[in-house]
From TrEMBL:
Taxonomic source organism: Micromonospora kangleipakensis
InterPro entries reported in the protein's UniProt record: Dimeric_a/b-barrel, YCII
Pfam families cross-referenced by the UniProt entry: YCII
Family under the similarity heading: Belongs to the YciI family.
Domain spans labelled YCII-related: 8-108
Listed name of the protein: YCII-related domain-containing protein
Length: 110
């Protein structure tokens, strides 16, 4: 099953950031196991463009639409047997210590 893992900042990081694993080791291990299909860091929220259409009119906004201190800074597309495995993958990610990770299953529209 595929999961999109949003990598986000958090206003309450772990008190001991030295406990976090190395990101390059996490990527290499997950890629080697076939659990990580792709991933990337994202540009800053200030570079975002929000697109909406209302009453047929295109509305563009610079930056994130919502005011928040927690922002999405990256993503990983995971292939896991089930949610439990996806949680274990997320638990080992460095941002689980200094940020937060949101897992969402991909929906098969076929």
């Amino acid at each position: 099953m595929k999961y999109l893992m949003f990598v986000c900042t958090d206003t309450e990081p772990d008190a001991d950031p030295t406990a976090a694993p190395d990101i390059e080791e996490w990527v290499a291990e997950r890629d080697g196991r076939g659990q990580r299909l792709m991933g990337s860091a994202l540009g800053p929220a200030s570079a975002a463009t929000t697109v909406r259409v209302r009453d047929g009119e295109l509305l563009l906004s610079d930056g994130p639409f919502a005011e928040t201190k927690e922002v999405i800074v990256g993503f990983d597309l995971l292939e896991c047997a089930d949610l439990d495995e996806a949680i274990e993958v997320a638990r080992a990610h460095p941002m689980a210590y200094s940020g937060r990770l949101e897992l969402r299953p991909l929906v098969d529209l076929d």
